[in-house]
Give the backbone structure.
Amino acid sequence: MRLCFQCGQEIPAGRTVPRDAECPHCSSDLHCCRNCRFYDPAVSNQCREPQADWVTEKLKANFCEFFSFLDGARPRAAPGDASSARDRFNKLFGD
């Protein structure tokens, strides 16, 4: 199941996503880093594909030849995670 990174709505499955494709629900670009299975903000270049060129705008359409639409949604942090992490930090190092 393909989901738009912007609105979270399901995108009809197709074989390829053209560079100029837009989400039918929110009109955001679909052929962009944020919808790619290689996108990972925690790695160098924010991309797990080592041969991919740097893309400045991760939310806009690009010409990356390694683009592959992410199947499913990216895991998101639970709303309480930030405060519980802060609580654990304060507990460890004191206020």
Observations:
- The longest strand covers residues 2-3.
